[in-house]
Amino acid sequence: MASKYLNSLSKKEYDKLTERLNSIQNKKCYICGDAIGLELQNTNIDHIIPLANRGKDSEDNFALTHESCNKSKQDASLDIARVLHKLKKIQDKTLEQEGKAASLKHVLQSFSGSKYDFKYKIESDSITYSFSDIGDNTIIKVPLFEDNLSKEKTCFIEVPIEYIHHDEIINPRGINNSISKLIKEFEKGNPQLHLTIARINDGKIMVFDGQHKAVAQVLLGSKKLLLRLFLNPDIDRLIETNTNAGSTLRQIAFDKSIMSQLNNTLYAERVKKYQEDHTLNDDDFSFSEQQLIDYFKGENVNIKKYIFDSIKHSITHHKENKLKDFVDFEGKAKELPISYSAFDKTFLRYFVNPKIFLSTNINHRSDEGLNPRELEINQAVRLLSLIAEKVYIGKFKPETGVYRIEKKIIDHKDADITDNHLVAFRISKEEVIYNWLQYLIKVIENYFNNTGRLFDNKKLFQEKFDDQLWQNIENFLDHLSLLPLWKDRSMAATIFAGKQNYDFWKTVFQTGKSPDGADVLAKSLNFMEMIKPLNYSENC
Protein backbone atom coordinates (compact mmCIF):
# COMPACT_ATOMS: atom_id res chain seq x y z
CA MET A 1 0.00 0.00 0.00
CA ALA A 2 1.45 3.33 -1.08
CA SER A 3 2.41 5.92 1.55
CA LYS A 4 0.60 9.22 1.19
CA TYR A 5 3.09 10.75 3.61
CA LEU A 6 6.16 9.77 1.58
CA ASN A 7 4.51 10.73 -1.70
CA SER A 8 3.85 14.20 -0.31
CA LEU A 9 7.56 14.87 0.36
CA SER A 10 9.80 16.77 -2.00
CA LYS A 11 13.09 15.14 -3.00
CA LYS A 12 14.94 17.34 -0.52
CA GLU A 13 12.56 16.42 2.31
CA TYR A 14 12.79 12.72 1.38
CA ASP A 15 16.60 12.87 1.44
CA LYS A 16 16.59 14.55 4.85
CA LEU A 17 14.26 11.86 6.21
CA THR A 18 16.60 9.24 4.80
CA GLU A 19 19.55 10.82 6.60
CA ARG A 20 17.60 11.05 9.90
CA LEU A 21 16.57 7.41 9.77
CA ASN A 22 20.12 6.38 8.84
CA SER A 23 21.44 8.23 11.90
CA ILE A 24 18.77 6.75 14.22
CA GLN A 25 19.64 3.24 12.97
CA ASN A 26 23.40 3.79 13.46
CA LYS A 27 23.87 3.64 9.71
CA LYS A 28 22.66 0.02 9.52
CA CYS A 29 19.93 -1.56 7.41
CA TYR A 30 16.82 -2.31 9.47
CA ILE A 31 16.46 -5.75 7.85
CA CYS A 32 19.96 -7.23 7.48
CA GLY A 33 21.83 -5.15 10.07
CA ASP A 34 24.71 -4.46 7.68
CA ALA A 35 26.12 -1.00 7.07
CA ILE A 36 24.36 1.48 4.80
CA GLY A 37 26.41 3.78 2.60
CA LEU A 38 24.03 6.46 1.38
CA GLU A 39 26.35 7.61 -1.38
CA LEU A 40 27.07 4.08 -2.60
CA GLN A 41 23.88 2.08 -2.13
CA ASN A 42 20.25 2.32 -3.13
CA THR A 43 17.91 2.51 -0.14
CA ASN A 44 14.19 2.40 0.62
CA ILE A 45 12.04 3.88 3.34
CA ASP A 46 9.27 1.52 4.39
CA HIS A 47 6.70 1.03 7.11
CA ILE A 48 7.82 -1.12 10.04
CA ILE A 49 4.24 -2.21 10.62
CA PRO A 50 2.53 -2.38 7.20
CA LEU A 51 -0.40 -0.06 6.55
CA ALA A 52 -2.43 -3.18 5.77
CA ASN A 53 -1.82 -4.27 9.38
CA ARG A 54 -3.01 -0.87 10.69
CA GLY A 55 0.48 0.58 10.90
CA LYS A 56 0.70 4.37 11.04
CA ASP A 57 1.76 6.39 7.98
CA SER A 58 4.17 8.56 9.96
CA GLU A 59 7.87 8.93 10.74
CA ASP A 60 7.75 6.85 13.92
CA ASN A 61 6.68 3.85 11.79
CA PHE A 62 9.39 4.26 9.13
CA ALA A 63 12.70 2.45 8.77
CA LEU A 64 15.54 2.63 6.27
CA THR A 65 16.64 -0.49 4.40
CA HIS A 66 18.87 -1.51 1.55
CA GLU A 67 16.72 -1.54 -1.57
CA SER A 68 17.69 -5.16 -2.27
CA CYS A 69 16.70 -6.24 1.26
CA ASN A 70 13.34 -4.49 1.00
CA LYS A 71 12.56 -6.07 -2.37
CA SER A 72 13.35 -9.56 -1.08
CA LYS A 73 11.00 -9.29 1.89
CA GLN A 74 7.90 -9.81 -0.28
CA ASP A 75 4.74 -9.36 1.84
CA ALA A 76 6.42 -9.57 5.25
CA SER A 77 6.56 -6.69 7.69
CA LEU A 78 10.01 -5.25 8.28
CA ASP A 79 10.19 -6.95 11.68
CA ILE A 80 9.37 -10.33 10.12
CA ALA A 81 11.80 -9.62 7.28
CA ARG A 82 14.53 -8.93 9.84
CA VAL A 83 13.82 -12.23 11.63
CA LEU A 84 13.83 -14.20 8.38
CA HIS A 85 17.08 -12.55 7.34
CA LYS A 86 18.70 -13.67 10.61
CA LEU A 87 17.49 -17.19 9.91
CA LYS A 88 18.85 -17.09 6.35
CA LYS A 89 22.28 -16.10 7.66
CA ILE A 90 22.20 -19.09 10.02
CA GLN A 91 21.08 -21.39 7.21
CA ASP A 92 23.74 -20.15 4.77
CA LYS A 93 26.50 -20.48 7.38
CA THR A 94 25.42 -24.01 8.29
CA LEU A 95 25.24 -25.08 4.66
CA GLU A 96 28.69 -23.65 3.97
CA GLN A 97 30.36 -25.11 7.05
CA GLU A 98 28.53 -28.42 7.46
CA GLY A 99 26.97 -29.06 4.06
CA LYS A 100 23.47 -29.58 5.48
CA ALA A 101 20.31 -27.72 6.39
CA ALA A 102 20.24 -25.73 9.61
CA SER A 103 18.18 -27.10 12.51
CA LEU A 104 17.04 -26.01 15.96
CA LYS A 105 20.59 -26.74 17.11
CA HIS A 106 22.06 -23.98 14.95
CA VAL A 107 19.38 -21.42 15.86
CA LEU A 108 19.87 -22.08 19.57
CA GLN A 109 23.64 -21.72 19.22
CA SER A 110 23.19 -18.41 17.41
CA PHE A 111 21.03 -17.08 20.26
CA SER A 112 23.33 -18.23 23.10
CA GLY A 113 21.31 -21.37 23.78
CA SER A 114 22.42 -24.98 24.38
CA LYS A 115 25.01 -24.11 27.01
CA TYR A 116 24.19 -25.99 30.19
CA ASP A 117 23.17 -29.35 31.61
CA PHE A 118 19.92 -29.65 33.54
CA LYS A 119 20.27 -30.11 37.32
CA TYR A 120 17.26 -31.90 38.80
CA LYS A 121 16.08 -34.42 41.38
CA ILE A 122 13.20 -36.84 40.93
CA GLU A 123 11.01 -37.75 43.89
CA SER A 124 8.08 -40.14 43.90
CA ASP A 125 5.56 -37.84 42.26
CA SER A 126 7.48 -34.65 41.50
CA ILE A 127 10.67 -33.22 40.02
CA THR A 128 12.74 -30.46 41.65
CA TYR A 129 15.20 -28.32 39.68
CA SER A 130 16.86 -24.93 39.30
CA PHE A 131 18.62 -22.89 36.65
CA SER A 132 21.51 -21.64 38.75
CA ASP A 133 23.96 -21.49 35.83
CA ILE A 134 22.18 -18.36 34.59
CA GLY A 135 21.94 -16.81 38.05
CA ASP A 136 18.43 -18.03 38.86
CA ASN A 137 18.75 -19.91 42.18
CA THR A 138 15.02 -20.43 42.62
CA ILE A 139 14.24 -24.06 43.46
CA ILE A 140 11.19 -25.13 41.48
CA LYS A 141 9.04 -28.19 42.11
CA VAL A 142 6.44 -29.47 39.66
CA PRO A 143 4.32 -32.67 39.60
CA LEU A 144 5.12 -35.74 37.51
CA PHE A 145 2.50 -37.44 35.35
CA GLU A 146 2.56 -41.11 34.39
CA ASP A 147 0.96 -42.16 31.10
CA ASN A 148 -1.59 -44.91 31.81
CA LEU A 149 -0.63 -46.98 28.77
CA SER A 150 3.09 -46.47 28.13
CA LYS A 151 3.95 -45.81 31.81
CA GLU A 152 6.33 -43.07 30.65
CA LYS A 153 6.78 -40.23 33.15
CA THR A 154 6.59 -36.60 32.03
CA CYS A 155 6.29 -33.11 33.45
CA PHE A 156 5.54 -29.63 32.09
CA ILE A 157 8.19 -26.97 32.67
CA GLU A 158 9.32 -23.63 31.29
CA VAL A 159 12.99 -23.86 30.30
CA PRO A 160 15.49 -21.07 29.47
CA ILE A 161 17.00 -21.59 26.02
CA GLU A 162 20.47 -21.89 27.61
CA TYR A 163 19.36 -25.34 28.82
CA ILE A 164 17.69 -26.51 25.60
CA HIS A 165 19.45 -28.75 23.06
CA HIS A 166 18.30 -30.27 19.75
CA ASP A 167 17.78 -34.04 19.69
CA GLU A 168 19.40 -35.09 16.43
CA ILE A 169 18.87 -38.79 17.15
CA ILE A 170 15.07 -38.82 17.29
CA ASN A 171 14.49 -35.75 15.10
CA PRO A 172 17.25 -35.14 12.56
CA ARG A 173 15.16 -32.80 10.42
CA GLY A 174 16.43 -29.46 9.26
CA ILE A 175 14.29 -26.32 9.14
CA ASN A 176 11.89 -26.29 6.17
CA ASN A 177 10.04 -23.54 4.33
CA SER A 178 7.00 -23.66 6.63
CA ILE A 179 8.95 -21.77 9.30
CA SER A 180 8.05 -18.36 7.82
CA LYS A 181 4.33 -19.10 8.29
CA LEU A 182 4.90 -20.06 11.92
CA ILE A 183 6.91 -16.91 12.56
CA LYS A 184 4.14 -14.75 11.10
CA GLU A 185 1.53 -16.62 13.15
CA PHE A 186 3.36 -16.21 16.45
CA GLU A 187 4.24 -12.58 15.66
CA LYS A 188 0.50 -11.84 15.54
CA GLY A 189 0.26 -12.99 19.15
CA ASN A 190 -1.59 -16.21 18.32
CA PRO A 191 -0.83 -18.97 20.87
CA GLN A 192 1.08 -22.21 20.37
CA LEU A 193 -1.50 -25.02 20.38
CA HIS A 194 0.88 -27.99 20.66
CA LEU A 195 3.75 -28.01 23.12
CA THR A 196 7.34 -28.67 22.18
CA ILE A 197 8.40 -32.10 23.49
CA ALA A 198 11.80 -33.01 24.93
CA ARG A 199 13.59 -35.72 26.89
CA ILE A 200 16.43 -35.77 29.38
CA ASN A 201 19.50 -37.49 28.00
CA ASP A 202 22.82 -37.54 29.84
CA GLY A 203 21.84 -34.44 31.80
CA LYS A 204 20.70 -32.46 28.76
CA ILE A 205 17.18 -31.39 27.80
CA MET A 206 16.82 -32.58 24.20
CA VAL A 207 13.94 -31.32 22.02
CA PHE A 208 12.72 -34.02 19.63
CA ASP A 209 9.25 -32.78 18.60
CA GLY A 210 7.97 -29.29 17.83
CA GLN A 211 11.33 -28.14 16.50
CA HIS A 212 9.85 -25.59 14.10
CA LYS A 213 7.63 -24.06 16.78
CA ALA A 214 10.68 -23.75 19.01
CA VAL A 215 12.73 -22.15 16.23
CA ALA A 216 9.99 -19.60 15.49
CA GLN A 217 9.73 -18.59 19.14
CA VAL A 218 13.50 -18.25 19.59
CA LEU A 219 13.81 -16.14 16.44
CA LEU A 220 11.05 -13.86 17.74
CA GLY A 221 12.99 -13.29 20.94
CA SER A 222 11.63 -15.87 23.39
CA LYS A 223 14.17 -16.65 26.10
CA LYS A 224 12.18 -19.53 27.58
CA LEU A 225 10.10 -22.34 26.08
CA LEU A 226 7.29 -24.32 27.66
CA LEU A 227 8.05 -28.03 27.24
CA ARG A 228 6.58 -31.42 27.92
CA LEU A 229 9.60 -33.24 29.30
CA PHE A 230 10.07 -37.04 29.29
CA LEU A 231 12.11 -38.37 32.21
CA ASN A 232 14.24 -41.49 31.73
CA PRO A 233 12.25 -42.59 28.66
CA ASP A 234 12.69 -45.75 26.62
CA ILE A 235 14.69 -44.21 23.73
CA ASP A 236 13.87 -47.04 21.31
CA ARG A 237 10.18 -46.57 21.97
CA LEU A 238 10.40 -42.80 21.43
CA ILE A 239 12.29 -43.24 18.15
CA GLU A 240 9.78 -45.81 16.94
CA THR A 241 6.84 -43.66 18.02
CA ASN A 242 8.24 -40.60 16.27
CA THR A 243 9.00 -42.65 13.17
CA ASN A 244 5.51 -44.18 13.07
CA ALA A 245 3.99 -40.71 13.49
CA GLY A 246 5.65 -39.73 10.22
CA SER A 247 4.89 -42.94 8.33
CA THR A 248 2.00 -45.23 9.22
CA LEU A 249 0.09 -42.66 11.28
CA ARG A 250 0.83 -39.66 9.03
CA GLN A 251 0.75 -37.27 11.98
CA ILE A 252 4.02 -35.52 11.18
CA ALA A 253 5.14 -34.21 7.80
CA PHE A 254 8.31 -36.31 7.64
CA ASP A 255 9.70 -36.54 4.13
CA LYS A 256 11.10 -39.84 2.86
CA SER A 257 14.67 -38.75 3.44
CA ILE A 258 14.01 -38.15 7.14
CA MET A 259 12.21 -41.50 7.42
CA SER A 260 15.33 -43.19 6.05
CA GLN A 261 17.48 -41.36 8.57
CA LEU A 262 15.22 -42.36 11.48
CA ASN A 263 15.16 -45.97 10.32
CA ASN A 264 18.93 -45.85 10.01
CA THR A 265 19.03 -44.92 13.71
CA LEU A 266 16.63 -47.75 14.57
CA TYR A 267 18.81 -50.19 12.63
CA ALA A 268 21.88 -49.11 14.61
CA GLU A 269 19.92 -49.62 17.85
CA ARG A 270 18.92 -53.16 16.81
CA VAL A 271 22.54 -53.99 15.93
CA LYS A 272 23.60 -52.73 19.36
CA LYS A 273 20.85 -54.78 21.05
CA TYR A 274 21.93 -57.91 19.18
CA GLN A 275 25.53 -57.38 20.29
CA GLU A 276 24.47 -56.90 23.90
CA ASP A 277 22.23 -59.97 23.89
CA HIS A 278 25.03 -62.10 22.42
CA THR A 279 27.78 -60.59 24.64
CA LEU A 280 29.63 -59.19 21.63
CA ASN A 281 31.91 -56.16 21.68
CA ASP A 282 30.78 -52.93 20.00
CA ASP A 283 33.20 -53.56 17.11
CA ASP A 284 32.23 -57.22 16.65
CA PHE A 285 30.04 -57.61 13.55
CA SER A 286 30.43 -61.35 13.12
CA PHE A 287 26.74 -61.78 12.30
CA SER A 288 24.66 -61.16 9.20
CA GLU A 289 21.67 -59.07 8.21
CA GLN A 290 19.65 -62.28 7.93
CA GLN A 291 20.61 -63.26 11.49
CA LEU A 292 19.32 -59.90 12.70
CA ILE A 293 16.02 -60.46 10.89
CA ASP A 294 15.69 -63.98 12.33
CA TYR A 295 16.59 -62.87 15.85
CA PHE A 296 14.02 -60.06 16.03
CA LYS A 297 11.24 -62.34 14.79
CA GLY A 298 8.37 -60.25 16.09
CA GLU A 299 9.46 -57.25 14.02
CA ASN A 300 11.25 -58.80 11.07
CA VAL A 301 9.28 -56.67 8.59
CA ASN A 302 10.50 -53.54 10.37
CA ILE A 303 14.07 -54.85 10.60
CA LYS A 304 14.12 -55.35 6.83
CA LYS A 305 12.93 -51.79 6.33
CA TYR A 306 15.55 -50.48 8.79
CA ILE A 307 18.34 -52.26 6.90
CA PHE A 308 17.11 -51.04 3.52
CA ASP A 309 16.66 -47.46 4.69
CA SER A 310 20.06 -47.52 6.40
CA ILE A 311 21.71 -48.35 3.08
CA LYS A 312 19.72 -45.65 1.26
CA HIS A 313 20.62 -43.11 3.94
CA SER A 314 24.31 -44.05 3.73
CA ILE A 315 24.29 -43.45 -0.03
CA THR A 316 22.19 -40.29 0.00
CA HIS A 317 24.05 -38.45 2.74
CA HIS A 318 27.54 -39.79 2.06
CA LYS A 319 30.05 -36.95 2.38
CA GLU A 320 31.41 -37.72 -1.11
CA ASN A 321 28.00 -37.78 -2.82
CA LYS A 322 28.19 -34.63 -4.95
CA LEU A 323 24.70 -35.12 -6.37
CA LYS A 324 23.04 -34.52 -2.99
CA ASP A 325 23.66 -30.78 -3.43
CA PHE A 326 21.11 -30.85 -6.27
CA VAL A 327 18.42 -32.87 -4.45
CA ASP A 328 15.46 -31.07 -2.88
CA PHE A 329 14.95 -32.91 0.41
CA GLU A 330 11.97 -30.78 1.50
CA GLY A 331 9.87 -31.29 -1.59
CA LYS A 332 8.79 -27.64 -1.74
CA ALA A 333 11.80 -25.69 -2.93
CA LYS A 334 12.00 -24.16 -6.41
CA GLU A 335 15.78 -23.93 -6.62
CA LEU A 336 16.91 -27.57 -7.03
CA PRO A 337 16.33 -29.89 -10.00
CA ILE A 338 15.77 -33.32 -8.39
CA SER A 339 13.03 -33.96 -5.86
CA TYR A 340 13.92 -36.49 -3.17
CA SER A 341 10.90 -38.52 -4.25
CA ALA A 342 12.34 -38.77 -7.77
CA PHE A 343 15.80 -39.56 -6.38
CA ASP A 344 14.32 -42.34 -4.25
CA LYS A 345 12.17 -43.83 -7.03
CA THR A 346 14.94 -43.83 -9.63
CA PHE A 347 18.56 -43.85 -8.45
CA LEU A 348 18.03 -45.63 -5.14
CA ARG A 349 15.57 -48.05 -6.71
CA TYR A 350 18.14 -49.15 -9.28
CA PHE A 351 21.11 -49.20 -6.91
CA VAL A 352 19.66 -51.10 -3.93
CA ASN A 353 17.30 -54.08 -3.96
CA PRO A 354 14.87 -53.90 -0.99
CA LYS A 355 14.38 -57.69 -1.01
CA ILE A 356 18.04 -58.75 -0.79
CA PHE A 357 19.46 -59.31 2.70
CA LEU A 358 22.89 -60.78 3.13
CA SER A 359 23.73 -64.03 4.93
CA THR A 360 27.43 -63.16 5.12
CA ASN A 361 28.76 -61.38 8.21
CA ILE A 362 28.22 -57.61 8.29
CA ASN A 363 32.01 -57.11 8.23
CA HIS A 364 32.61 -59.78 5.54
CA ARG A 365 35.81 -58.97 3.54
CA SER A 366 35.87 -55.37 4.82
CA ASP A 367 39.64 -55.57 5.28
CA GLU A 368 40.00 -56.36 1.54
CA GLY A 369 37.75 -53.53 0.40
CA LEU A 370 35.29 -56.11 -0.97
CA ASN A 371 32.52 -56.01 1.59
CA PRO A 372 29.32 -56.28 -0.51
CA ARG A 373 27.40 -53.52 1.29
CA GLU A 374 30.39 -51.17 1.37
CA LEU A 375 30.96 -51.78 -2.35
CA GLU A 376 27.28 -51.15 -3.04
CA ILE A 377 27.31 -47.86 -1.16
CA ASN A 378 30.69 -46.59 -2.39
CA GLN A 379 30.05 -47.43 -6.05
CA ALA A 380 26.59 -45.90 -5.96
CA VAL A 381 28.10 -42.73 -4.46
CA ARG A 382 30.84 -42.65 -7.08
CA LEU A 383 28.26 -42.95 -9.86
CA LEU A 384 26.05 -40.23 -8.39
CA SER A 385 29.06 -37.92 -8.12
CA LEU A 386 30.01 -38.65 -11.71
CA ILE A 387 26.49 -37.73 -12.82
CA ALA A 388 26.76 -34.51 -10.81
CA GLU A 389 30.06 -33.63 -12.50
CA LYS A 390 28.74 -34.32 -15.99
CA VAL A 391 25.32 -32.65 -15.69
CA TYR A 392 25.04 -30.30 -12.72
CA ILE A 393 28.22 -28.88 -11.19
CA GLY A 394 29.01 -25.49 -12.72
CA LYS A 395 26.03 -25.87 -15.05
CA PHE A 396 22.80 -25.83 -13.07
CA LYS A 397 22.17 -22.45 -11.40
CA PRO A 398 20.15 -22.61 -8.15
CA GLU A 399 19.47 -18.87 -8.41
CA THR A 400 17.66 -19.54 -11.71
CA GLY A 401 15.91 -22.57 -10.21
CA VAL A 402 13.27 -24.76 -11.78
CA TYR A 403 10.07 -22.73 -11.44
CA ARG A 404 8.07 -22.46 -14.70
CA ILE A 405 11.16 -22.96 -16.86
CA GLU A 406 9.25 -24.15 -19.93
CA LYS A 407 6.65 -21.38 -19.56
CA LYS A 408 9.43 -18.77 -19.49
CA ILE A 409 10.82 -20.22 -22.72
CA ILE A 410 7.39 -20.14 -24.38
CA ASP A 411 6.91 -16.52 -23.25
CA HIS A 412 10.42 -15.57 -24.45
CA LYS A 413 11.46 -14.64 -20.91
CA ASP A 414 14.34 -17.11 -20.81
CA ALA A 415 17.37 -14.85 -21.22
CA ASP A 416 18.76 -16.01 -17.86
CA ILE A 417 18.28 -19.73 -18.66
CA THR A 418 21.53 -21.06 -20.10
CA ASP A 419 21.65 -24.17 -22.30
CA ASN A 420 23.53 -26.07 -19.58
CA HIS A 421 20.90 -25.12 -17.02
CA LEU A 422 18.13 -26.28 -19.35
CA VAL A 423 19.90 -29.61 -19.95
CA ALA A 424 20.20 -30.23 -16.21
CA PHE A 425 16.56 -29.26 -15.62
CA ARG A 426 15.11 -31.47 -18.33
CA ILE A 427 17.30 -34.50 -17.69
CA SER A 428 16.20 -34.40 -14.01
CA LYS A 429 12.50 -35.15 -14.51
CA GLU A 430 11.57 -38.35 -12.68
CA GLU A 431 10.11 -40.06 -15.74
CA VAL A 432 13.20 -39.12 -17.77
CA ILE A 433 15.72 -40.31 -15.15
CA TYR A 434 13.83 -43.59 -14.73
CA ASN A 435 14.20 -44.39 -18.43
CA TRP A 436 17.80 -43.30 -19.12
CA LEU A 437 18.94 -45.14 -16.00
CA GLN A 438 17.71 -48.36 -17.58
CA TYR A 439 20.22 -47.85 -20.38
CA LEU A 440 22.97 -47.09 -17.87
CA ILE A 441 22.21 -50.33 -16.00
CA LYS A 442 22.46 -52.18 -19.32
CA VAL A 443 25.91 -50.65 -19.82
CA ILE A 444 27.01 -52.23 -16.53
CA GLU A 445 25.36 -55.60 -17.15
CA ASN A 446 26.69 -55.79 -20.70
CA TYR A 447 30.25 -55.14 -19.47
CA PHE A 448 30.05 -58.03 -17.01
CA ASN A 449 28.59 -60.31 -19.72
CA ASN A 450 31.38 -59.45 -22.17
CA THR A 451 34.11 -60.12 -19.59
CA GLY A 452 32.64 -63.53 -18.83
CA ARG A 453 31.93 -62.73 -15.18
CA LEU A 454 29.04 -64.38 -13.42
CA PHE A 455 26.99 -61.81 -11.55
CA ASP A 456 23.64 -61.40 -9.87
CA ASN A 457 21.77 -58.50 -11.47
CA LYS A 458 19.82 -58.11 -8.24
CA LYS A 459 23.09 -57.25 -6.49
CA LEU A 460 24.69 -55.32 -9.34
CA PHE A 461 26.44 -52.67 -7.29
CA GLN A 462 27.90 -55.30 -4.96
CA GLU A 463 30.14 -56.39 -7.87
CA LYS A 464 33.39 -54.45 -8.15
CA PHE A 465 33.47 -52.10 -11.17
CA ASP A 466 36.87 -51.94 -12.82
CA ASP A 467 38.42 -48.92 -14.56
CA GLN A 468 37.17 -49.77 -18.06
CA LEU A 469 33.58 -50.04 -16.83
CA TRP A 470 33.87 -46.64 -15.17
CA GLN A 471 35.16 -45.25 -18.46
CA ASN A 472 32.18 -46.76 -20.29
CA ILE A 473 29.83 -45.15 -17.79
CA GLU A 474 31.53 -41.79 -18.21
CA ASN A 475 31.27 -42.05 -22.03
CA PHE A 476 27.58 -42.92 -21.73
CA LEU A 477 26.91 -39.87 -19.58
CA ASP A 478 28.78 -37.64 -22.04
CA HIS A 479 26.59 -38.83 -24.90
CA LEU A 480 23.43 -38.60 -22.82
CA SER A 481 24.04 -35.00 -21.71
CA LEU A 482 24.76 -33.90 -25.30
CA LEU A 483 21.54 -35.20 -26.84
CA PRO A 484 20.08 -32.21 -28.78
CA LEU A 485 16.57 -32.49 -27.32
CA TRP A 486 17.69 -31.21 -23.90
CA LYS A 487 18.65 -27.83 -25.42
CA ASP A 488 15.90 -27.61 -28.02
CA ARG A 489 13.73 -24.73 -26.83
CA SER A 490 11.16 -25.32 -29.56
CA MET A 491 10.07 -28.41 -27.59
CA ALA A 492 9.00 -26.34 -24.57
CA ALA A 493 5.41 -26.18 -25.80
CA THR A 494 5.24 -29.81 -26.93
CA ILE A 495 7.54 -32.56 -25.63
CA PHE A 496 8.35 -30.81 -22.35
CA ALA A 497 4.94 -29.23 -21.82
CA GLY A 498 3.67 -30.68 -18.55
CA LYS A 499 4.54 -33.98 -16.92
CA GLN A 500 4.78 -36.99 -19.22
CA ASN A 501 4.47 -40.57 -17.98
CA TYR A 502 7.18 -43.25 -17.88
CA ASP A 503 5.94 -44.93 -21.07
CA PHE A 504 6.18 -41.67 -23.00
CA TRP A 505 9.94 -41.47 -22.47
CA LYS A 506 10.36 -45.20 -22.93
CA THR A 507 8.91 -44.75 -26.41
CA VAL A 508 11.06 -41.70 -27.13
CA PHE A 509 14.31 -43.47 -26.21
CA GLN A 510 13.36 -46.71 -28.00
CA THR A 511 12.08 -45.15 -31.24
CA GLY A 512 13.31 -41.56 -31.36
CA LYS A 513 9.68 -40.44 -31.63
CA SER A 514 6.94 -39.49 -29.18
CA PRO A 515 3.94 -41.85 -28.88
CA ASP A 516 2.00 -39.64 -31.32
CA GLY A 517 4.79 -39.88 -33.90
CA ALA A 518 6.55 -36.53 -33.43
CA ASP A 519 10.32 -36.56 -34.04
CA VAL A 520 12.28 -36.09 -30.80
CA LEU A 521 15.65 -37.78 -31.42
CA ALA A 522 17.51 -38.37 -34.66
CA LYS A 523 17.46 -42.08 -33.82
CA SER A 524 16.73 -44.40 -30.92
CA LEU A 525 19.22 -44.69 -28.09
CA ASN A 526 21.83 -47.42 -28.44
CA PHE A 527 23.82 -47.92 -25.25
CA MET A 528 26.56 -49.78 -27.15
CA GLU A 529 27.18 -46.70 -29.28
CA MET A 530 26.99 -44.46 -26.23
CA ILE A 531 29.92 -46.16 -24.47
CA LYS A 532 32.30 -45.22 -27.27
CA PRO A 533 34.61 -42.26 -26.59
CA LEU A 534 32.93 -39.01 -27.54
CA ASN A 535 33.93 -37.45 -30.85
CA TYR A 536 33.57 -33.78 -29.93
CA SER A 537 33.77 -32.63 -33.54
CA GLU A 538 30.51 -34.46 -34.18
CA ASN A 539 28.79 -32.79 -31.26
CA CYS A 540 29.77 -29.18 -31.80
Task: Break the fold down into its secondary structure elements and pairings.
Elements: H1 4-7, H2 11-24, E1 43-47, E2 62-66, H3 67-72, H4 78-98, H5 104-110, E3 119-122, E4 126-131, E5 136-143, E6 145-146, E7 153-160, E8 164-166, H6 179-187, E9 196-201, E10 204-209, H7 211-219, E11 224-231, H8 235-246, H9 256-277, H10 289-295, H11 300-316, E12 327-328, E13 338-339, H12 340-351, H13 372-392, H14 405-410, H15 419-427, H16 430-450, H17 467-481, H18 502-511, H19 527-530
Helix pairs in contact: 6-7, 8-9, 9-11, 10-11, 11-13, 12-16, 13-17, 16-17, 16-18
Q: With helices defined by DSSP (H or I, 4 residues minimum), what is the helix count?
A: 19
Q: Mean pLDDT score, rounded?
A: 90
Described by strand count, sense and barrel closure, the largest sheet is: 6 strands, mixed
> Cα-atom Rg, whole angstroms?
28 Å
Beta fraction? 5-15%
The gross shape turns out to be flat
Ends apart, CA distance between termini: 52 Å
Structural category is alpha/beta
The number of distinct β-strands equals: 13
Helix content range: 40-55%
Count of domain modules: 4
Ranges where pLDDT stays below 50 over 5 or more residues in a row are 249-254
State the strand order across the main sheet.
Answer: 6-7-11-9-10-8
Summary tags:
540 residues; 19 helices; six-stranded mixed beta sheet; alpha/beta; three-stranded antiparallel beta sheet; His-Me finger endonuclease fold; flat; 13 strands; 4 domains
